[in-house]
Amino acid sequence: AQSVTQLGSHVSVSEGALVLLRCNYSSSVPPYLFWYVQYPNQGLQLLLKYTSAATLVKGINGFEAEFKKSETSFHLTKPSAHMSDAAEYFCAVSEANAGNMLTFGGGTRLMVKP
Amino acid sequence: NAGVTQTPKFQVLKTGQSMTLQCAQDMNHNSMYWYRQDPGMGLRLIYYSASEGTTDKGEVPNGYNVSRLNKREFSLRLESAAPSQTSVYFCASRSGRALGSYEQYFGPGTRLTVT
């Protein structure tokens, strides 16, 4: 069975600082990995995805994530936080042999201080 | 393209009442999903439909039923609402091709309160 752990339910950074949101997964087969962002009172929007091509994946709004198989991690980073990045971020894993179901982590709320 | 649409946006029910949440997508996707979102628990899958004419239980199906009305529409029904079903409900769709890499597209959500 697949599972996702997001370390830190709340992360606070200053505007201009590095953003690092952590995601670790467990999967019995090579996974597909996703980061979604949810702005207040909205649905989820895809930020980026890993599909077994390049291990460093670039997404929208300056975010990127690196797949590290040895660490079973897929951490999300952004070099310089902007006030508009304040949102909740979800990591998710999918396995092709599990009916392509998405399993989500518990989410990390990012707060950006001026 | 409207993407994935959901109605209603908000609903308040009394315990024991029933209601149906509607979802439609205009992307010609094969697979559709219903999730509930609760604080600190991420999104949990209630039911899904891999293709028109099929539905399957997810992680938390108790108290819910679904209907895949056609390729576009996938509804979620609460027959007898309980306070534990107070949540935000999201519908999603996916192209449904074999590889697991294809992402899901989400609707704006329905905020349901059961008193």
SSE topology:
The complex is a heterodimer of chains A (114) and B (115).
Chain A: E1 3-5, E2 10-14, E3 19-21, E4 24-26, E5 32-38, E6 44-50, E7 56-58, E8 64-68, E9 73-78, E10 87-94, E11 102-104, E12 108-113
Parallel strand pairs in A: 2-12
Antiparallel strand pairs in A: 1-4, 3-9, 5-6, 5-10, 7-8, 8-9, 10-11, 10-12
Chain B: E1 4-7, E2 10-13, E3 19-25, E4 31-37, E5 43-49, E6 56-57, E7 64-68, E8 74-78, E9 87-94, E10 105-106, E11 110-114
The major pleated sheet of chain B works out as: 7 strands, mixed
Strand percent estimate of chain B: over 45%
The portion of residues assigned to helices of chain B is under 10%
Strand content of chain A: over 45%
Residue share in helices of chain A? Answer: under 10%
Oligomer state of the chains in this structure: heterodimer
Overview of this protein structure:
The complex is a heterodimer of chains A (114) and B (115). Chain A is mainly β and 114 residues long. Chain A contains no helices and twelve strands. In chain A, strands 2, 5, 6, 10, 11 and 12 form a six-stranded mixed β-sheet that branches. Chain A starts with a strand and ends with a strand. The model of chain A has no long low-confidence stretch (mean pLDDT 91). Chain B is mainly β. In chain B, strands 2, 4, 5, 6, 9, 10 and 11 form a seven-stranded mixed β-sheet that branches. In chain B, strands 1-3-8-7 form a four-stranded antiparallel β-sheet, with no helix packed on it. The model of chain B has no long low-confidence stretch (mean pLDDT 92). At the A-B interface, strand 5 and strand 6 of A face strand 5, strand 9 and strand 10 of B.
